[in-house]
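thread from #wetlab-drylab

HS: before we spend reagent money on co-crystallization trials with guanosine-5'-triphosphate, can we at least see a predicted complex? here's what I'd submit
DV: go for it
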Amino acid sequence: MGLLTNLKDSISRVTDGLFAAEEPKRIGIYGPPNAGKTTLANRIARDWTGDAVGPESHIPHETRRARRKENVEIERNGRTVTIDIVDTPGVTTKVDYKEFLDHDIEKEDAVRRSREATEGVAEAMHWLREDVDGVIYVLDSTTDPFTQVNTMLIGIIESQDLPVLILANKTDLPGTDVKQIANAFPQHETIPLSALEGENMDEVYTKIAEYFG
Ligand SMILES: Nc1nc2c(ncn2[C@@H]2O[C@H](COP(=O)(O)OP(=O)(O)OP(=O)(O)O)[C@@H](O)[C@H]2O)c(=O)[nH]1
Ligand SMILES: [Mg+2]
C-alpha cells in the first residue's frame, strides 16, 4: 500500500469517527391538543424504525407525558439524518376535567387525567427551553390557527432560535385550509399533510432532512 492510500485510510477513519460521534438531533413535536402529533410521531417511527411511539385518540390530552423515540434514521437523497423524536402533550391555556366527562370518563379518572395533562404541558414547556434542537409544530388545518397558544409557542420557539417546520395536518378532511395557516405564520414554511392517511409524507421527510440534518 502506498503512502497516499494509507493517508486516505487514516483520514476516512477519523471522519467516520467524527460522524459516528455526532449526537442525533432532538426534535420536539409540539402543538395544540388533538392536532395529530402522536399520529405523526407514530407514522415517522413506523416508516423508519418499524414500531410506534404511543397511543392516538380522539379524546384530547391523550398524550400526557412526553414520549421519545431515539435514533430514527431518515434517508433523503443518499444522505441519512438521525433524529430523536419527542412527542409532547398538547399545549392549552387551560385543562378542564369536564372536557373528559364528555368522553364517558368517570369523574375521578377525569380529574387525574387533567392533572397529568397539566404536568405534561409544564414538562413539554421545560423541554422546549432546555432540551430540543428543533421543532415540528403540528396544527389541525380545519381549525383556526390564530390562537394565543400558537402565537405564544411559536414566539418562544423563535426566541430560542430553533429551526421550526409548521405542518398543516388533516388535509384529508373537508374544511381544510392550509393557506390560513401559512398566512398566520408567514415567516415560516408550512407543509400540508395527512398524518392519518400518509399524504405528502415524502415532502415532510425531505423538509425534516433539510431543516434538521
Ligand atoms: N382525518 C384525520 N384525522 C387525523 C389526522 N391525524 C390525526 N387524526 C386524528 O385526530 C385525533 C387526534 O390525534 P392524536 O395523534 O392523538 O393527536 P395529538 O395531537 O397527539 O393529541 P394530544 O396527545 O391529546 O395532544 C385522532 O382521532 C386521530 O386519528 C389526519 O391527518 N386526518
Ligand atoms: Mg398525542
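DV: The mean pLDDT is 91.
HS: ok that's useful, forwarding to the group
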